[in-house]
Amino acid sequence: MGVFDKLFGGLGKTRQKIDLEELFQDYAPDSEAFYDDLQDMLVLADAGIATAERVDYLMRRKTWEDRFRKGEEARAGLIEVLTGILNVGSPELKLDTRPSVILMVGVNGVGKTTTIGKLAHRLKDEGKSVMLCAGDTFRAAAAEQLGIWAERAGTDFVRHEEGSDPAAVVYDAVCAAKARGTDVVIVDTAGRLHNKQNLMNELAKIRRVIDRELPEADVETLMVLDATTGQNGLIQAKQFLETAGLTGIVLSKLDGTAKGGIVFAIANECGLPVKFVGVGEKIDDLVPFDAKSFVEALFKD
User: Fold this and answer.
1) Dihedral-angle region of residue 292 (phi above 0 means left; psi in -120 to 50 means alpha; beta otherwise)
2) What is the pTM assigned to this prediction?
């Protein structure tokens, strides 16, 4: 199954919630009902009011500039507008150094450990050697769960005892990766500490270890966001953007929600590119994000 097919399947519940094709059945370029319905559908899909209003403005301007008269012209125009909103940065991971590091952040329960396992599997399939680092030493059984995924994906694995200093685990993993010539180290981090300041301090400490030991390394900081949380996920993204210096988003559980429009809110309000989306429970159900394919998958053929 190709990337588009997986995206199309993953967006099934979102398409059931909204019907973008219906917008163009009785399209008229000067119809206020068209723009009202467009905004309503985007809000229903959890794109948010700010994003819906921006799409409304851009579509009105494009309709006037390109002289849309037919529904199929407006449909193509809307796909272009929505795709443009999502193109806020490269969806590609920058992992050119050896080793490179991926810091995975996100609150508990979003599917972070599962996503790490799927990402490790994908990188292994691309021919990269991978090491998983159990940097979440606060949550009971976190290391054990990550170890199971390391075994499934066939990667190296570094852990300490529960309650250990996360930065010390990261230090050991980085040193081991340098010694073994590992391509990518993926670091799990705590999803919830005592308060926001603790979280910021812990992530900063981990990052200092990485910068000290691997000053030239490529480092991606990816937030795993549960698509089913909708606008609550947007709030989480803004908080982690402030504290963790995010480089991108991995959207999990897209197949289980009608709130797929949250992708537009994240791009519009946070300026963050989505790097991958999770569209199922299998180990290969993490697909690279492509803005145009995502938008086209929202429309019914």
Assistant:
1) alpha
2) 0.89
